[in-house]
């Protein structure tokens, strides 16, 4: 998993609440076994018209959001099914950080396992930056995980957390900084795992 320290990029505004995983990546596209290739189908039912053309009314089709790496959205983002394809699609599309008042629990965990930073902010702060992203397409922000701050060129500085529990916040923050998913964390104890397996493996028949 790629470590995350700090990024500066275009922030796209998706001013919708309760965006579920079937809206993030429709089930019809869950046919690949790789983690890549899902970005082309991200928000597919919203991004495209029935004839396959881009929907001009969908927020992320705004030309000013082209190349966006930060997504600002509403509460309970990632609700619905537990499919890990949702963060895969967001990451493959180019998003490295998602800013929201709250996240669905399983989706939240899946973000950490895929190197996406889930930025928690109070609703009033979300409203401030949402307005900027809407009114200034191309608006850029910096997500600094080392300092746990959001910044922009106008002098805005907003502290953030990646988890509401302080201890879990620090643990998950460090994992993202180091690029450590659950598998990597487990492999840190590989020697102990091997020792346990050797101690408890069946004895050969004499």
General description of the model:
The chain is an alpha/beta fold. It has a single domain (6-180), classed as Aconitase, domain 4, CATH 3.20.19. The chain has helices at residues 21-24, 44-47, 85-93, 105-112, 123-135, 166-178, 182-187, 190-200; strands at 6-14, 70-73, 97-100, 117-120, 140-144, 149-151, 157-159. It is globular and about 70 Å long.
Describe the strand arrangement of the main beta sheet, using strand numbers: 4-3-2-1-5-6-7
Q: In terms of structural class, how would the helical and strand content be classed?
A: alpha/beta
The biggest beta sheet reads: 7 strands, mixed
Strand content: 15-25%
**CATH homologous superfamily annotation:** Aconitase, domain 4
> Briefly, what CATH class?
Alpha Beta
Gyration radius, to the nearest Å? 19 Å
Helix amount: 25-40%
Provide the descriptors you would attach to this structure in a database record.
7 strands, globular, Aconitase, domain 4, alpha/beta, 206 residues, 8 helices, seven-stranded mixed beta sheet
Protein topology:
Blueprint: E1 6-14, H1 21-24, H2 44-47, E2 70-73, H3 85-93, E3 97-100, H4 105-112, E4 117-120, H5 123-135, E5 140-144, E6 149-151, E7 157-159, H6 166-178, H7 182-187, H8 190-200
Parallel strand pairs: 1-2, 2-3, 3-4
Antiparallel strand pairs: 1-5, 5-6, 6-7
Summarize the model shown:
By secondary structure, the chain is of the alpha/beta class. It contains eight helices and seven strands. The chain has helices spanning about 20-25, 45, 85-95, 105-110, 125-135, 165-180, 180-185, 190-200; strands at about 5-15, 70-75, 95-100, 115-120, 140-145, 150, 155-160.
